[in-house]
Design brief:
Layout lengths: L1 H22 L3 E7 L4 H18 L3 E7 L15 H9 L3 E5 H6 L11 E4 L2 H10 L3 E3 L2
Parallel strand pairs: 1-2, 1-5, 2-3, 3-4
Length: 138
Amino acid sequence: MKMKKIALFTVMVLCVSLHALAQSPAHKIVIQVNTSDTTAWHGVVRNIGNLQTALGPNTSIEVVAHGSGIGLLIDSKTTQKAKIAELSAKGVSFVACENTIRMNKIDKATLLPQSGFVPSGVAEVILKQEAGWSYLKP
C-alpha cells in the first residue's frame, strides 16, 4: 500500500510540474530600440512577426524603447502604429523609458495607447537579461 501512495504522489507532482511548465513561456525575448532609424523600427516589427511564427504563441516579447528610439512609441512620429497595435493585441509588450520621457519633456499622452512604462530602459534590458531573457537589438 505504501508503494502505491508513493507512486500516486510522484505522478501528482509530475503532473503539477508539467502543468507549470506548460503555463510559462517557452521563449522570452527583450528587444532594445534606441535608434530613430525608421528602417530599424520596421525591422523590429518584422522580426517580432518572424519570431512568433518560428517559436510559436508561447513566446514572451518585450520591446524597450529609450533614447532616440522613443519615437517608435510616439503617436505622431512612429511609422509602425498599426503593426504595434496588432502585435500588442497578440501579447507583445511595448514599454517606454521614463528617464527618456522626462529628459525630453515628452507628454505621456502623446505615446501610443499600447505603451507601458519602465523607470529606466537600459535597466529594464539588463534586468530581463539577468532573468534569463534573450536579447535582440536591431
